[in-house]
Amino acid sequence: MKKIVLLITAICLTSETFGQKTSSSSVDEYECIYEYHVKNTKGSSDATSTILQIGRNAAMFSDYTAFQKDSAIACKAPESDIQKFKTQEMRNDMFFDQSVSQNVPKGKMTVYSVITPNYYSYTETASPINWSFAEEEDTICGYTCQKAMGEYGGRTWTVWYSTEIPVSFGPWKLCGLPGLVLAANDSEGIHQFKAITFRKSNMPMNMKPYASIVKTSREQFIKAKNKFEENPMGNIPTESISEMTIEKYEDGGHSALVNGVVLRMRPNGYVPLELK
Q: A Pfam family in this protein (predicted)?
């Protein structure tokens, strides 16, 4: 398993951790950091860090290294810091390449992702899962949680949500419950999200992470994405390549870019969250 190194950006950030519970009367401008684990095609487990930024009426879920880069840019950090975070983002083999704007537009959620060399977006209902409830409780990071189950994308999900944090958001697309989802896993034990930090924040949400986007439907994207990840290099249409470059690093590593978009080879394979 890859060791997660969680770099908490101090730039422009105020925090309140689980050790100091937030008031349950309202939630505005908070963030929840989750460890995301996935069993790879080689039988071991990979992990990365993700973040859910929570506003009064909307939330944004994204990869943590992308959040660090955007935070550094928003705070006008030194160029050396911005470049460091850009490099971390490019080199992250486990980069979580779906950014999900929950309740944007109202009543919908917008998903941004990539099939190199293009960025894509599509919208779907803000609560795509019909949840059933169980009379079980657990405590996660000091918060009392209830259990719910639902089907989505060809997988059965179990989540733990807390009404002590009264928002209907959660990691990835696992939302629409009467409290923040703090943990989730699919029935096969392949994918898992677990909260490790919940705190106040004053960082702006980047609701549109990419400047140039191809709009599509969820069905078309999932089919194309899962096929592409079977052989990323071989599945890029030759006619779509206008430029291919190699970014080299001091330690001997490198990243491949096609038309300026990172080509992630995922050495341990790709295991999709959505099967259909």
A: Porph_ging
